Amino acid sequence: MEVLVRPMRPEDLDALVEFWADMSNDPVVSGRIYPPTEENKRKWRSWVLKVHEEDERQVLVAETNGQVIGYILFRVRTDLPLWSPHRMATIYDLYVRPDFRRRGVATKLLAEALEAMRPRGVTLVTITALVANEPALRLYRKVGFRDLRLTLVKEL
Ligand SMILES: CC(C)(COP(=O)(O)OP(=O)(O)OC[C@H]1O[C@@H](n2cnc3c(N)ncnc32)[C@H](O)[C@@H]1OP(=O)(O)O)[C@@H](O)C(=O)NCCC(=O)NCCS
C-alpha cells in the first residue's frame, strides 16, 4: 500500500472532523470528555484551521489512492508560561481509519511530524494517551517516547 503524507488541504477538513468525532466518541481513546456535538465539531474545525494557518506542516494527512485515511496534528508551543531550555511541541491528535490500521500508517505520520519539528527547533515532544489506549501507548513507546506523567481524575 502506497501512503503519501502531506499537509492538510481545506477540502480534507470534513474527513478530519469525522475522524475526530470517532475518537471523541470512543471511551478508550478520549474518555468522552469532549463529546462530538455539532458545536464541538464546529469549534474543533476552526481550531484546526488556525493551527494549519500557523504552519501548514502542523496538520499532516495520510493519503492512499486519493483518499484521506488518517492524520496527525501537532503544535509548536509558543504559549508556555515560563522559560524552559526546551522548545516544545505537543502532538494533540493521531488517527488512522480502522480499515487501514496495523500497516504502519501511524508510524509514518509520526515520523513525518517529528521530521517537521526538527527544523523548527523543537527539542522536546509531548503526547498524551489514556492509560486504557494500549495500541497508542505501544506505538509511542515503540518509536521512542517514554512515560513521564500520569494524569489522575476524580469525578465530583
Ligand atoms: C493508535 C493508532 C493511531 C495506531 O495506528 P496504526 O496505523 O494502526 O499504527 P501502526 O501500524 O503504525 O503500528 C505501529 C505499532 O504500534 C503498535 N500497535 C498499533 N496498533 C496496535 C494494537 N491494536 N494493538 C497492539 N499494538 C498496536 C504495534 O507495536 C505496532 O507495530 P506492529 O504492527 O509491527 O506490531 C490507531 O489504532 C488509531 O487511530 N486509534 C484510534 C485513535 C487513537 O487512539 N489515537 C491516539 C490517541 S492518543
Report the sheet-strand fraction: 15-25%
Give the count of structural domains. Answer: 1
- The Cα radius of gyration reads 15 Å
- Kindly report the spatial arrangement of strands forming the biggest sheet: 1-2-3-4-5
The proportion of residues forming helix, as a percent range, comes to 25-40%
Number of strands: 5
Largest sheet: 5 strands, mixed
**Helix count from the secondary structure assignment:** 5
CATH topology: Aminopeptidase
Unreliable stretches? none
Q: Can you identify the CATH class? A: Alpha Beta
* Terminal-residue CA separation: 48 Å
Structural class: alpha+beta
Averaged pLDDT, please? 97
Order of helices and strands: EHHHEEEHEH
Shape-level CATH architecture = 3-Layer(aba) Sandwich
Cα shape: globular
CATH superfamily: Gcn5-related N-acetyltransferase (GNAT)
Small molecules bound in the structure, each named once: coenzyme A
Task: Describe this structure as you would to a colleague.
A five-stranded mixed β-sheet has the order 1-2-3-4-5, sandwiched between helices. Strand 2 and strand 3 form a beta hairpin. The protein contains five helices and five strands. The chain has helices at residues 13-25, 27-30, 38-54, 105-117, 134-142, and strands spanning 4-7, 59-64, 67-76, 88-96, 124-127. It has one domain (4-142): Aminopeptidase (3-Layer(aba) Sandwich). It starts with a strand and ends in a 14-residue tail after the last helix. The mean pLDDT is 97. The protein is globular, with a radius of gyration of 15 Å. Coenzyme A (COA) is lined by residues 23, 29, 94-96, 101-107, 129, 133-136, 138-139, 142.
